[in-house]
Amino acid sequence: MASVPAQREYGEQPTWGAGRPRFHVFRLLLAWALSALALLVAAAIVPGAVVHDYRSALVAAAAIAVLNAVLPPLVAAIRLPFMALLGFFVVLALDAAILLAADHLTNGDLTVSSFWSALGVALAAAAVGVVLNVILGTNDDDTYAFRVIQRIARRSDDREETEVPGILFLEIDGLALTVLQRAIRNGSAPTMGRWLEEGTHRLTGWETDLSSQTGASQAGILLGSNEDIPAFRWVEKETATIMVCSAPADCAEIERRHLGGRGLLANGGASRGNLLSGEADHVILTASRSEAERHSNPGYRAFFANGFNVLRSLVLFGWEVILELVAAVQQRRREVTPRGHRGGIYPFLRAALCVVVRDLIVYGVLTDMMKGRPVVYATFSSYDEVAHHSGLERGDTMEALRKLDQQFGRIDRARLYAPRPYEIVVLSDHGQTQGATFKQRNGYDLEELVRRSVDTEDVARVEAGDENQTAVGRAVDEASGRKARKQSKKDVSGRDIVVLASGNLGLVYLMDEPRRLSLEEIEAHHPRLLPALREHRHLGWLLVHSTRHGPLVLGPNGTRRLESGEVEGADPLAAFEPRAAQHLLRASGFAHTADILVGSFYDPALEEGCAFEELISFHGGIGGPQTKPFVLHPVELPAAQEPLVGAAAVNELFLGWRSMLQAPQPEPVAVVVGAEA
């Protein structure tokens, strides 16, 4: 990296250390007035609740505000197991109790007949308040939230005040560089656009490894290595088990295998919403350290210290479900293609990621800032999840990105009150490529194609599903204490063939031997299989290993020898990125690469391919924007001198930035005035 000053020079107008955020009298009075109006409307809607007039509503709203300032922080300080889940129910019950207490304190200004009426009023008032705040544009006042978080941080034992800058790494899961650039132009990312326009940040791209998915990318970024992670899920033939990049036990094992002293978050860092911890000391919603979620995790305290947070999240959760249902109907009515399946539990999964999980992570980051932690890495998966089902740049996908951008603005504003200066780096771990799925195009999936092309009926397929669905399901299991799913679902012993999917990357494991089979062995055991795959018009390439020629890429009309670069016939990688052969050669050397690695076709003109699972926007393989994520970083942090290829290169860059900002400074030399030489 280029040489730069060891520490950023901060100008006369500080970007940190401004003390406590101050209430603005006008905004305080406006918030009180709107709360009273929301309470009045809620009481009119909910049976068993009465507010006589607006004056009574003002009195009741004041009483509720006082109780909310006192009681939720006390409850949040209690160490509860499974806090991420149990905290919602406890605070929700407390919100109803506050309404009942206000009934007794206001001498009839507010009357609620039962606990359930109180709960209904609390939720209805929150819903009305959200609508009023949006209409009047008053939903950006974070003064109270910052004060609560700051107060909690100051009472903790691990708060650090220093002039040494910290770094916030905010990851937008699945957002490609080109999509971000268009989002900035069309106004869907105003905060990030403002940083670029004002010249405080610069935007650059990087290139993922194979496979282009969160498990491999985060291993490289957070730990400095993603060796032998061939896909989102893969088979380890020697034990006949499937590894999955979002299963907590598997994530813990992945992290153990890749520890090498390059943890980005070591020495006081915090991991928020990641698959891997990066050797962080503080974690929430981190799959590899999910055991911490079973205990009383103080990382959630700031969120639950404000009772309105739970009400607001539940209201917005319901609204997000409605938005998804409406968007799905509009796609069908307008005959938008490609479009994916958007029913079942998906609307609730989307709402969980776009609202609840996002808010928990944001409050975790804000807490880390107020405690002065040196480095934070947080992953936000809402864009990735919506894009999988809606499309890369559809209206509701861009809305999910806009809401994330809004939260980044909130984090940016909080820097003013942190006990140390912070640099903000926004990045993505991979992009996505769009197209109708393999099954939509053909009426059958990759597993069925393999089944038709071999002489055995015992072809196993792992249930499809994107990484976010798996992650949320596991998180609920861990947070609630529910037992993990049966191990037999990952046990493929006794199977003849296993077919897995990772976006537009397919993996075919032939279980004849507990090792990778050669091209020659595959042709001998299953003579119809490779020709059937090579000839399929929606498959672009096959990666196999030949005893005679080493790693080979087979295409419909040609073969590429990866070690020599020699091509016979048409190059099967001609339509893909220039370094495709380099990535495939590296993946071929992994111990657990499939006997046959399959890539979908890619059309550069349309930027279109097809996934082997039912996701219309996908990643995991090569071809298109999925391999082109970005880094948006302060101009004071030097850019890499060479193109960033591979997640480990990003780790090296980020560690360099952290060292530059936080390396111990030399001790000053003591000078005694008047001393003799």
Fold blueprint:
Blueprint (H helix, E strand, L loop, with lengths): L24 H21 L3 E3 L2 H23 L6 H23 L4 E3 L2 H22 L6 H12 L11 E7 L4 H10 L3 H9 L2 E5 L8 H10 L9 E4 L4 E4 L3 H11 L11 E3 L9 E3 L16 H4 L2 H27 L12 H26 L3 E6 L1 H9 L4 H20 L7 E6 L5 E2 L3 H5 L3 H7 L6 E3 L5 H14 L16 E6 L2 E6 L8 H7 L3 H7 L3 E8 L3 E5 L3 E4 L5 E3 L10 H9 L7 E5 L16 E2 L11 E5 L12 H16 L15
Parallel strand pairs: 3-9, 3-10, 7-8, 7-9, 12-13
Antiparallel strand pairs: 1-2, 4-21, 5-6, 10-21, 11-20, 13-14, 14-19, 15-16, 15-19, 16-17, 17-18
Helix pairs in contact: 1-2, 1-4, 2-3, 3-4, 3-11, 4-11, 5-12, 8-21, 11-12, 12-13, 12-14, 13-14
Summarize the structure.
Helices cover 43% and strands 14% of the residues. It has 677 residues and is of the alpha+beta class.
Structural commentary:
The protein is α+β, with helices and mostly antiparallel strands and 677 residues long. It has two domains: 25-141, no CATH class; 170-295 and 352-424 and 434-627 and 649-663, Alkaline Phosphatase, subunit A. It has an eight-stranded mixed beta sheet, with helices on both faces. Strands 4-21-10-3-9-7-8 form a seven-stranded mixed beta sheet, sandwiched between helices. Strands 1-2 form a two-stranded antiparallel sheet. A hairpin with a 4-residue loop joins β5 and β6 (241-244). It is globular, with a radius of gyration of 27 Å. The two termini are 41 Å apart.
Give me some keywords for this one.
2 domains; alpha+beta; Alkaline Phosphatase, subunit A; 677 residues; disordered C terminus; disordered N terminus
